[in-house]
């Protein structure tokens, strides 16, 4: 009966053919005494080879143990000896016919693979000398060469390279890997045996790999063996890559070997100096400047290197550029303006120390450095600029000042600083707009109060004739309105189009503002302006009610014929006084554009009617016939009641008579009637 179907293993001997002297050998091999010695002779050989028992191996071979037998895992005695580095046993097995390329069952690895993996150089040499296939892969395609390389067994690697252990493609890949991982010895071996140092694949050259990973010694090895330094790797120069990653040694090596310090990358169109500045690599920046890099060379966006350092807050690099006279105006904004805008105090201070003009204007509409500091709320920078001679009242092309910028953003501390430092609080812009005016139009209560407390004039009108009160009333900000009125703001001041604060307050339905303005008008009597038109507080509600009636009429004006006299006949005195005020007149015109002419004519008719009544009463009192009849009748009544009537008493009585009664009296005394029928 055969033990195994493996053709390399002979059939087991019958039990009676086993020499008795081998029993002691079997029992000394860590195999159970209970196992039949006949079934364990090959297992004994494998075990002896694995453990390095040379004498036992010799005895077992001499006793007929098969050197190419396999254990349950499919491993041969030679495989076991190679995996443990037993050179003498390996040599013995080979001499007795062991097959050097026999693979195990599981991983399909050879004895050579195992020796390479473990780093047993002498065994590898011995196997190669006896014809081992150095290119035989395991089940994953990995050869003994790969194994030696990745384990770092460079002596074994050299043995393989000498014996042409692999195809060119594999050597190339391993050479690339050496440069990538920093395996200097392996890279040296590949170069020694003729590898091309300027190989190039989709990932670049070996030098590019070494530079991108910071392997200075390998980069030096490659350059010394002819590697080209001014090549592009994925659109970047090797120097650009080194500068980007902060590899000072490699950058220096490349420059010393002719790398172009001003060559732009293809991808980002930036110079190595721009990239080093952006990444904050101070030593590399210094190296590049010392090597002649153009510190003012712009990238495709027009940005110079110092700009990149500034925005990353690398103050030491900015200082380097300034010491080397880097320009500060090649970018879209002056560098000082950038520092003031973004609040970088140290760089702003550094720039001023290097003589940068503090009154330099940025591009666009941003204004001066002080404007930018004030607009963005950087108090300390604003102080620094003022202390170094910044023009506080400088205007941009629209007339904006630092104070207007600070006020626009509610930066009260800066507002105080500017005013205390001499800023003109009443300086208007090109539209005639003052800071207070602008503040009121934006509903900024705190700033408006601060400005008035600091002496801002409240009645300065813009080019359109509008005042601060006009805008505060329009916004409905009662706090600002009260503040302005308390500072003497003109209630009746009108814009060029005739609109007033009261007009807009009414249109926006800001009742509290309307009341404030009307109350204030009761207290004011501005020269050449409307006289006081309301004498008593109780009449305020009547005016308001009248305005509400007008609003109601507006909503249904398309359905009715509006009669202003009918609407207001009970409040003629109030309305006749109110309507002469240009605030209410303009308001009426805006609300009733279709009825304006009719309203004005009707109002004129009311005044004419009153005038004619007054003239008629005067005429009656001066008519002798009327006076005789009236006083005769009155005297008779008076004598009976002991009452004395004067002319003033009779005038008062006539005032209460209806127009038709006056007409009757006039006809009675034959006077021509002078009233209009209307």
Can you put this structure into words, describing what you see?
With 678 residues, the chain is mainly α. The chain has a domain at 599-678. Helix content is 55%, strand content 1%. The protein contains 39 helices and two strands. Strands 1-2 form a two-stranded antiparallel sheet. Helix 14 (238-245) packs antiparallel against helix 15 (248-256), helix 19 (315-323) packs parallel to helix 21 and helix 26 packs antiparallel against helix 27. The longest helix has 27 residues, at 596-622. It is elongated and about 180 Å long. The relative contact order is 0.03. The model is unreliable at 1-39, 525-540, 553-584, 591-595 and 671-678 (pLDDT under 50). Keywords: ANK repeat, Repeat. InterPro entries: Ankyrin_rpt, Ankyrin_rpt-contain_sf, Multifunctional_regulatory. ANK repeats lie at residues 73-105, 107-139, 140-172, 205-234, 234-266, 268-300, 339-363, 365-397, 398-430, 431-463, 464-496.
């Amino acid at each position: 009966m055969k033990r195994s179907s493996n053709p390399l293993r002979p059939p087991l001997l019958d039990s009676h053919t086993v020499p008795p002297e081998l029993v002691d050998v079997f029992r000394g091999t860590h195999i159970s005494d209970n196992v039949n010695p006949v079934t364990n002779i090959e297992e004994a050989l494998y075990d002896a080879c694995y453990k390095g028992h040379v004498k036992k191996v010799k005895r077992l071979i001499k006793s007929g143990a098969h050197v190419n037998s396999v254990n349950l895992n499919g491993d041969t005695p030679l495989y076991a000896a190679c995996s443990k580095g037993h050179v003498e046993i390996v040599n013995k097995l080979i001499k007795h016919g062991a097959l050097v390329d026999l693979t195990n069952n599981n991983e399909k690895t050879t004895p050579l693979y195992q020796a390479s993996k473990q780093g047993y150089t002498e065994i590898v040499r011995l196997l190669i000398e006896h014809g081992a296939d150095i290119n035989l892969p395991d089940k994953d395609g990995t050869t003994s060469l790969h194994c030696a390389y990745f384990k770092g067994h460079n002596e074994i690697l050299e043995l393989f390279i000498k014996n042409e252990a692999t195809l060119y493609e594999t050597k190339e890949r391993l050479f690339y890997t050496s440069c990538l991982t920093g395996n200097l010895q392996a890279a040296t071996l590949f170069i020694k045996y003729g590898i091309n140092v300027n190989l190039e694949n989709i990932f670049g050259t070996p030098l590019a790999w070494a530079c991108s990973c910071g392997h200075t010694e390998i980069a030096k090895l490659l350059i010394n063996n002819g590697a080209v330094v001014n090549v592009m790797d994925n659109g970047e120069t090797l120097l650009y890559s080194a500068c980007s990653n902060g590899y000072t040694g490699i950058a220096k090596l490349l420059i010393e070997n002719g790398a172009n310090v001003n060559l732009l990358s293809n991808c980002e169109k930036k110079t190595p100096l721009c990239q080093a500045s952006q990444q904050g690599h101070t030593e590399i920046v210094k190296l590049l400047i010392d090597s002649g890099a153009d510190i003012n060379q712009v990238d495709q966006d027009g940005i110079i290197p110092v700009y990149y350092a500034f925005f990353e807050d690398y103050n030491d690099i900015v200082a380097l550029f300034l010491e080397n006279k880097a320009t500060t105006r090649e970018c879209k904004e002056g560098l000082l303006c950038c520092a003031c805008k973004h609040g970088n105090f140290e760089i702003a201070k550094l720039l001023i120390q290097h003589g940068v003009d503090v009154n330099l204007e940025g591009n666009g509409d941003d204004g001066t450095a002080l404007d930018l500091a004030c607009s963005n709320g950087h108090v300390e920078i604003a102080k620094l600029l003022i202390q170094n001679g910044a023009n506080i009242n400088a205007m941009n092309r629209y007339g904006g000042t630092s104070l207007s910028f600070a006020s626009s953003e509610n930066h009260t501390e800066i507002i105080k600083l500017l005013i205390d430092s001499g800023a003109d609080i009443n300086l208007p812009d090109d539209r005639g707009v003052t800071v207070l005016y602008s503040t009121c139009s934006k509903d900024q209560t705190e700033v408006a109060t601060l400005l008035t407390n600091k002496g801002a004039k409240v009645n300065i009108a813009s080019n359109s004739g509008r005042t601060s009160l006009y805008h505060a009333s329009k916004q409905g900000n009662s706090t600002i309105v009260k503040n302005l009125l308390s500072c003497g703001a003109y209630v009746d001041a009108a814009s060029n189009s005739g609109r007033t604060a009261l007009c807009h307050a009414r249109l926006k339905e800001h009742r509290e503002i309307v009341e404030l303005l009307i109350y204030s008008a009761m207290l004011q009597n501005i020269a050449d302006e409307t006289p006081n038109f309301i004498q008593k507080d109780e009449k305020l509600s009547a005016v308001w009610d009248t305005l509400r009636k007008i609003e109601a009429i507006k909503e249904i004006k398309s359905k009715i014929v509006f009669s202003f006299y009918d609407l207001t006949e009970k409040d003629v005195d109030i309305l006749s006084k109110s309507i002469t005020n240009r605030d209410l007149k303009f308001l009426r015109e805006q609300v009733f554009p279709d009825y304006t002419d009719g309203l004005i004519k009707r109002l004129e008719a009311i005044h004419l009617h009153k005038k004619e009544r007054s003239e008629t009463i005067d005429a009656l009192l001066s008519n002798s016939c009327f006076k005789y009849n009236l006083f005769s009748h009155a005297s008779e009544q008076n004598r009976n009641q002991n009452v004395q009537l004067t002319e003033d008493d009779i005038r008062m009585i006539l005032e209460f008579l209806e127009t038709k009664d006056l007409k009757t009296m006039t006809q009675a005394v034959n006077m021509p009637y002078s009233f209009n029928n209307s």
